Amino acid sequence: MSNRRARDLGITIGRGAPGPSNTITDVPGVRVGHRTVIAGDDGDPNAVRTGVTAIMPHEGFPWSEPVYAATHILNGYGELIGINSIREWGILESPIVLTSSLLIGKAYDATVRWIARHDGDAGESVMPCVTECDDSWLSNVLADPIDDDDVWAALDAVTSGPVEEGCVGSGTGMQCFDFKGGIGSASRVLAADQGGSTLGVLVMTNHGDRQDLLIDGVRVGERLIDRMPEDHHEGSCIVIVATDAPLLPHQLRRVAERAGMGLARGGSHASNTSGEQLIAFSTAARVPRDGKPFAPPAIADGPRAGTILSPLFRATVEATEEAVVNALLAARTMTGRDGHTLHALPVDRTLELVDAAGRLAR
């Protein structure tokens, strides 16, 4: 993996310690896979720059062994299929699949078939979790560019290794603060006296106004206003938070809410036509499908729970902020349909600005 990443360049966001790969897969059992779909020459009106990303919550099949989960919506101009069952039951019973807005139906259908094919217990109604961002600035979304095989390829490719970032999978055609964006990830490992849990974040960026961009609190966007795209689209951001902390659904909802604070620290204000879909899940318990009572590990609520929950909240904010920066740094300039171009973040100039503000580690 040859990603440019914040910490490798001296940008150290927050106080928490990252995990070994500083990605969502530092949470044991969590796996990520991508399928990148690129077709057509630069400038071709039918060019395709899109893909699929899949997140598997543990090493088994989540239909047979669901996990506790929750969602939070900052601004709802977007689609998250499966949100009602997560909110009603507090469980995630499928992989999470990310793709382009107008491909969400095809991705849903393909995921249903994949689950039925791979999980022999999936004989009931299957309602997978599939969400999206709009990559139509670079990609001809009406070209019907993906099929079942592409979705299955992402699902079959899931791995626990470091996450590939930038212009890959569902992030292939996405933007971020009017630069090229895509997939980003980061993680935090809590100290033993804070529970010792691991928390990881994966983002699919497609949001932000250039002049609002902050990197570790430094207002870099307003100093990098050249090479703007011809048109500005108020896009969306998907945030997936995974942890092995033994959290229940109502606690995971609070974690998901903190992911929105991480987006805000990078300059997002969740505009009127954006769709910030935030999903959090815990791998600590597998919920029995037979409905029989069981005693899951759990963190008690109340004021004294702050010694465990507050560090998890901080970890969520920090990892989300850093994941967005990693998406920006990993992405490369890309030209798609009709000559539309999204330029990569100018790394050298960005580092100069961060350094001038005294925020670059040496």
Describe the structure.
- This protein is of the alpha+beta class and 362 residues long.
- It has one domain: 4-Layer Sandwich (L-amino peptidase D-ALA esterase/amidase).
- The protein has a 6-stranded mixed beta sheet with strand order 5-3-13-12-11-10, sandwiched between helices.
- A hairpin with an 8-residue loop joins strand 10 and strand 11.
- The longest helix is centred in the C-terminal third of the chain and has 25 residues.
- The two termini are 23 Å apart.
Outline of the structure:
The chain is an alpha+beta fold and 362 residues long. It contains six helices and 15 strands.
SSE layout and pairings?
Layout: E1 31-39, E2 48-56, E3 67-76, E4 80-81, H1 83-89, E5 91-92, E6 96-100, H2 104-118, E7 129-133, H3 148-156, E8 175-176, E9 179-180, E10 183-189, E11 198-206, E12 236-243, H4 249-265, E13 275-282, H5 306-330, E14 334-335, E15 341-342, H6 347-356
Parallel strand pairs: 6-7, 12-13
Antiparallel strand pairs: 1-2, 2-6, 3-5, 3-13, 4-7, 8-9, 10-11, 11-12, 14-15
